[in-house]
Q: What sequence folds into this?
């Protein structure tokens, strides 16, 4: 916000925010030596790929039907059948890549049922998410059109579980072959003479579970078979993503990769990591919130270890690591699901902090990752938008939406090293034998701009972060924050703007920045540097 802020001014700002009582001693008067991080703007990690901020939409609950897709005849304002408010909000957020149609749903999805005149598409039972009937009104053309409307690159998850290599191979031809083949001409007849040029193709989803209950070697063997028929059409080379484990399962990755010896390796390799919570979304206690935040340590370790495993295989270094599904998965009340669809989950201040922890990890591990997809885009799990069911007209931007907004400034910049040093809290760092979550920080730089994101995941302590800047001199800076003193605060249909991004005070000196982080907050500081 300011340059050359005096200590007194900084203290006044903190007091105005009601924070001084809980801040560590020495925060405003003298430097707080136990609160120091070092931002090494001169030590580069790697590109913050915009794809780290990608999304996932499944035919599940009201994510697609009733959420994204309301149909062209709906009384809800829509663009060609897509909920207009969702299109507008997602365009503003920027969605680099969108993965579809599942999830487990993809493991039983037959793409041919979702093309051609809508009235003639077969009705199918969604066996994974409640045995309800879908009319296939949202298929390949609708998905690609939606991606184009919001500016996202489409990513198809192909069916291995109940599908075949031929089905995937034909889907690729249907999408990408320019013209003259029966499949390409069918696409043209269905309204899209131009090929879709779909690059990302997932070879199955959760093959160890809903994707066919494979063992890792069997899944590897399936990858070999499917990859044999996935071809380049019209210059679009399919980028094939092999199916990795749930969590940090080294045995799966070894078994899968060993089975590929001597054959084509995947271009990408995906794993899933949900951060489960044992409370309903609106009833988290500080203790339960901290337990959920702690899972992120394991996520970071998983990224490092899965990367090391891939790198240990011949050309494994070239394989892009995908965190294909991630996000908080709370204990969702049945009433919410009955009212709004399966896995409809409210996003709270705690969820936004969780998003901040994840996004900070992706920056810090930028050299190891290729893409990360939050689960899921609308109405399901840690969504960025909530709608109130198929009949509703409301569309609310969740706390998670705003957390992603706060990290947008990192996209395309180069992540630089941050030594968290002694950025710690007062008092014990262990509770019930478990380490308590620690403050989280990451930074990225491009030319004259350095962006620093900080997360305070503790529900019981505010803190002042004191960051030394190395390799650059700051001229001035601005900060924004997402915070609510209630960790269960959320944006509702009645109060859609309860938790939104606010300007925040930051004290900037040429070699230093200081910022007060209230308990449960996510902040981003943008510095003009030389
Ligand atoms: O995102 C919900 C489900 O979680 C997905 O369908 C599946 O891939 C995972 O188990």
A:
């Amino acid at each position: 916000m300011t340059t050359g802020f005096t200590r007194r001014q900084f203290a006044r700002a903190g007091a105005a925010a009601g924070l001084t009582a809980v801040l560590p001693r020495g925060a405003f008067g003298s430097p707080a030596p136990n609160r120091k991080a070092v931002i090494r703007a001169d030590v580069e990690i790697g590109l913050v790929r915009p794809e780290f901020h990608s999304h996932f939409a499944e035919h599940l609950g009201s994510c697609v039907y009733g959420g994204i897709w309301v149909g062209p005849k709906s009384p809800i304002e829509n663009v060609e059948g897509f909920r207009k408010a969702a299109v507008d909000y997602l365009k503003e957020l920027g969605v680099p890549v969108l993965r579809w149609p599942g999830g487990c749903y993809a493991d039983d999805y037959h793409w041919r049922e979702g093309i051609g005149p809508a009235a003639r598409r077969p009705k199918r039972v969604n066996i994974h998410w409640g045995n309800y009937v879908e009319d296939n009104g949202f298929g390949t053309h609708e998905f690609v059109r939606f991606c184009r409307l919001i500016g996202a690159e489409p990513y198809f998850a192909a069916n291995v579980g109940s599908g075949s290599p031929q089905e995937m191979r034909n889907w690729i031809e249907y999408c990408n072959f320019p013209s003259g083949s029966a499949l390409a001409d069918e696409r043209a007849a269905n309204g899209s003479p131009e090929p879709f040029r779909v690059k990302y193709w997932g070879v199955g989803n959760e093959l160890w579970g809903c994707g066919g209950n494979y063992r890792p070697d069997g899944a590897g063997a399936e990858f070999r078979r499917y990859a044999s028929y996935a071809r380049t059409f019209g210059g679009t080379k399919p980028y094939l993503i092999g199916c990795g484990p749930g969590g940090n399962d080294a045995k799966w990755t070894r078994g899968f990769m060993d089975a590929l010896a001597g054959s084509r390796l995947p271009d990408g390799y995906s794993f899933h990591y949900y951060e489960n919570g044992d409370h309903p979304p609106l009833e988290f206690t500080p203790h339960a919130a901290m337990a959920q935040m702690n899972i992120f340590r394991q996520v970071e370790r998983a990224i490092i270890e899965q990367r090391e495993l891939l790198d240990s295989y011949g050309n494994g270094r070239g394989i892009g690591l995908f965190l294909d599904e991630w996000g908080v998965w709370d204990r969702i009340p049945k009433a919410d699901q009955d009212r709004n669809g399966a896995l409809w989950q409210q996003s709270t201040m705690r969820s936004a902090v969780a998003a901040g922890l994840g996004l900070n990890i992706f920056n810090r591990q930028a050299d190891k990752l290729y893409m990360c997809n939050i689960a899921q885009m609308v109405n399901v799990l840690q969504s960025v938008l909530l709608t109130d069911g198929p009949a509703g007209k409301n569309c609310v931007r969740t706390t998670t939406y705003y957390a992603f907004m706060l990290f947008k400034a990192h996209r395309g910049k180069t992540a630089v090293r941050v030594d968290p040093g002694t950025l710690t809290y007062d008092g014990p760092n262990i509770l019930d034998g478990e380490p308590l979550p620690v403050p989280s920080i990451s930074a990225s730089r491009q030319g004259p701009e350095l962006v620093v994101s900080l997360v305070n995941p503790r529900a019981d302590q505010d803190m002042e972060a004191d960051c030394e800047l190395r390799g650059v001199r700051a001229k001035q800076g601005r900060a924004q924050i997402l915070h609510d003193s209630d960790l269960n605060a959320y944006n509702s249909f009645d109060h859609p703007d309860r938790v939104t991004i606010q300007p925040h005070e930051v004290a900037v000196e040429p070699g230093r920045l200081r910022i007060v982080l209230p308990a449960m907050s996510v902040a981003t500081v943008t510095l003009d540097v030389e």
